[in-house]
C-alpha cells in the first residue's frame, strides 16, 4: 500500500507552490544540481534569503536534474551526473523531498540546508531533523524505483525547456527564459523580482 501511494505521488505534477494566473506572486522556476557549486551559491545567497523576505510575492518551483543523463537498465534507470554518483543520489533524494515534505516553509528550509551543507543525501537526515520533517517517506521514496521514476519524470519536464538547459542553475521567471534575466537573477534575484512584480513594496526592493 505504501509503495502504491508513493507511485501515485510520483506521477503527480512536479510543482511546488506554483502561482495561479491571477496571483500577485512571481513564479521563479529553478533547474539545478545538488552538488553544483553555482547552484549552491544561488540557492544559499540569493534564492533562500530572498524567498524568506519576499515569500508573499514569490512562488518557487524547484527541479533537481540539470546536466544529468540516463538510460534504462534491467532494474530501473541508471543516472550519470556531472558532479559524480553522489550528486545523482542527492538529486533523487531532493525530488523525493519535494513530494513528501508537507509545507513550503519546511521544504525551502530543508533544501537550503542540503545546499548549504553541500554533501547531498549524506546530510538529509540532519536537515530533516532541523526542520521537524519526518524523513521516513523521503527515504522510502529515494531507496526504491519510485525515486528513480521521479527523477526520470523531472528529466522529461526539463526536456520541455526552450531553449534547452546548458548550465545550472537554469532560471525562468514566470515561465519565461531569457539569458539576460537568468544571469541577472543569479547575481541579484531581489532586483529581478522587484522589476517584474509591482506588488512588492518599495521598502523591500532597496
UniProtKB/TrEMBL annotation:
Residues 1-18 form the signal peptide. This is Gamma-interferon-inducible lysosomal thiol reductase. Pfam families: GILT. It comes from the Eukaryota. Keywords: Glycoprotein, Secreted, Signal. It is found in: Secreted. Belongs to the GILT family. It comes from Scylla paramamosain. GO terms for cellular component: extracellular region. GO terms for molecular function: oxidoreductase activity, acting on a sulfur group of donors, disulfide as acceptor.
Amino acid at each position: 500500500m505504501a509503495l502504491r501511494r508513493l507511485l501515485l505521488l510520483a506521477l503527480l505534477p512536479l510543482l511546488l507552490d506554483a502561482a495561479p494566473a491571477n496571483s500577485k506572486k512571481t513564479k521563479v522556476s529553478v533547474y539545478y544540481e545538488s552538488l553544483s557549486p553555482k547552484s549552491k551559491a544561488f540557492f544559499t545567497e540569493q534564492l533562500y534569503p530572498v524567498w524568506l523576505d519576499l515569500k508573499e510575492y514569490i512562488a518557487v518551483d524547484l527541479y533537481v536534474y540539470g546536466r544529468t543523463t540516463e538510460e534504462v537498465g534491467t532494474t530501473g534507470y541508471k543516472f550519470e551526473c556531472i558532479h559524480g554518483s553522489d550528486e545523482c543520489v542527492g538529486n533523487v533524494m531532493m525530488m523525493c523531498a519535494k513530494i513528501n515534505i508537507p509545507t513550503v516553509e519546511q521544504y525551502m528550509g530543508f533544501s537550503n540546508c542540503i545546499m548549504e551543507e553541500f554533501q547531498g543525501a549524506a546530510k538529509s537526515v540532519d536537515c530533516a531533523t532541523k526542520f521537524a520533517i519526518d524523513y521516513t517517506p523521503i527515504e522510502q521514496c529515494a531507496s526504491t524505483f519510485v525515486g528513480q521514476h521521479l527523477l526520470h519524470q523531472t528529466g522529461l519536464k526539463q526536456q520541455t525547456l526552450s531553449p534547452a538547459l546548458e548550465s545550472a542553475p537554469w532560471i525562468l521567471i514566470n515561465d519565461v527564459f531569457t539569458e539576460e534575466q537568468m544571469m541577472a537573477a543569479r547575481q541579484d534575484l531581489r532586483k529581478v523580482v522587484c522589476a517584474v512584480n509591482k506588488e512588492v513594496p518599495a521598502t523591500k526592493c532597496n
